[in-house]
Amino acid sequence: AQTVTQSQPEMSVQEAETVTLSCTYDTSESDYYLFWYKQPPSRQMILVIRQEAYKQQNATENRFSVNFQKAAKSFSLKISDSQLGDAAMYFCAYRSGGGSNYKLTFGKGTLLTVNP
Amino acid sequence: DSGVTQTPKHLITATGQRVTLRCSPRSGDLSVYWYQQSLDQGLQFLIQYYNGEERAKGNILERFSAQQFPDLHSELNLSSLELGDSALYFCASSPYAGGNTEAFFGQGTRLTVV
């Protein structure tokens, strides 16, 4: 079974600074997807960024980028120019690319605080 | 707004009771997923339906059941409720059963069992 580990329960960053959230995963599959979801106090789960395992290029979405190290099974999220609205719980998630089960397996989450 | 609608937003009920949570997927999405988020277990996959049929099952208790109707909305039924069932229950939907698509989440139903 796949597992996702987020080793940082909490992180903090100053507004306008850069922060990196860590995520490692364990899988024997070669075809899969990785995601970062954001959960603000509103509870809504919002997709921040996704990465296909077959792509070597790291995904980027505006101020959000990932460092995908497939051999190390590492998938970190970098938030640049942090804003107060970035404060939320961030979840790393894994999904198989094949077979018939497309469930998301989540890490425990990292609570990000942005200080003004 | 993700386009996924869950009702009710909040639910308080007593132990031993039965409740039904409802989910309307995004227009055109055929696949519905249910997840449970609790403090001790985190976010866990419960069950997936695709076009009316059960596609995958996760850590769903026997007291829980779900179905997807012809209009593609889904319901999660929780019975013989226990204090430990208190959690946030999410529904998510995607166009297909998998592939290169992503799931969009509803705002969740907060269930409190007293």
Characterize the structure shown.
- Chain A has 116 residues and is mostly beta strands.
- Chain A contains no helices and 12 strands.
- In chain A, the strands form 3 sheets. In chain A, strands 2, 5, 6, 10, 11 and 12 form a 6-stranded mixed beta sheet that branches.
- The termini of chain A are far apart.
- In chain A, 33% of the residues are buried.
- The relative contact order of chain B is 0.33.
- The A-B interface holds A 33, 35, 37, 42-47, 50, 52, 91, 95-97, 99-109 and B 2, 31, 33, 35, 42-45, 48, 55-56, 58, 88, 90, 92, 94, 97-100, 102-105, 107-108, 110.
List the main descriptive attributes of the protein structure presented here.
heterodimer, A: 116 residues, mainly beta, six-stranded mixed beta sheet, four-stranded antiparallel beta sheet, 0% helix, globular, B: 114 residues, seven-stranded mixed beta sheet, 11 strands, 53% strand
Strand content of chain B: over 45%
Largest interface: A-B, 26 and 27 residues
Query: Could you report the average pLDDT of chain A, rounded to the nearest whole number?
Result: 94
Count the beta strands of chain A. 12
Helix and strand pattern of chain A: EEEEEEEEEEEE
Biggest sheet layout of chain B? 7 strands, mixed
As a whole number of angstroms, the C-alpha radius of gyration of chain A is 14 Å
